[in-house]
Amino acid sequence: MPTLDIEKIKKEVVDSQLWRSVFRGGVWKDTPRDRAGHIIGNVWLHLHPVKVRPRALEWLYTWGMGGISFALYLILTLTGVALMFYYRPTIGLAYRDIKDLEFAVTLGMFLRNAHRWAAQAMVVAVIAHMVRVFLTGAYKKPREFNWGIGVLLLTLTLFLSFTGYLLPWDQLAIWAVTVGTNMAGATPVLGNEGPLGSLVGMRINNDVRFTLLGGTMVGENTLLRFYVMHCVAVPLVVGILLILHFWRIRKDSFSAAPYVANEEKVDVWPHLVKREYIAAAATVLFIMVWSILQNAPLEAIANPNVTTNPSKAPWYFVGLQELLVYFDPWIAGVVMPGLIIVGLIAIPYIDTNPKGVGYYAWKERPFANTLFMLGVFMWFALIYIGYALRGPNYAWYWPWEDWLMPKAAPPPTWSVFGPHGVAAYSMLLGIPLMGAVAAAWMLLPKLIQKELDGKKTMGAFLGAVALVAAVGMALGKMGPIEGAFLLFFTGASFYYGFVLPQRHIRALDWPRYLVTMVLVISTMSVLLKMCARLAFNIKYVLTIPSISMNF
Amino acid sequence: MSETNPNPAPDSTPKAPAAPVAAAPAKPAAPAKPISRGDFLWAGWSMLAAFFAASAAAGARFMFPNVIYEPSQKFNAGQASGYDLGVSTKWLNEQRVWIVRTPSGFYAMWARCTHLGCTPNWWGDQNRFKCPCHGSNYTLDGDVIAGPAPMPLWRTKVELAPTGDLIVDKAVLENKPGKREHAPYFANYASA
Ligand code: HEM
Ligand code: FES
Question: Taking the model in full, what pTM does it have?
Answer without folding.
Answer: 0.89
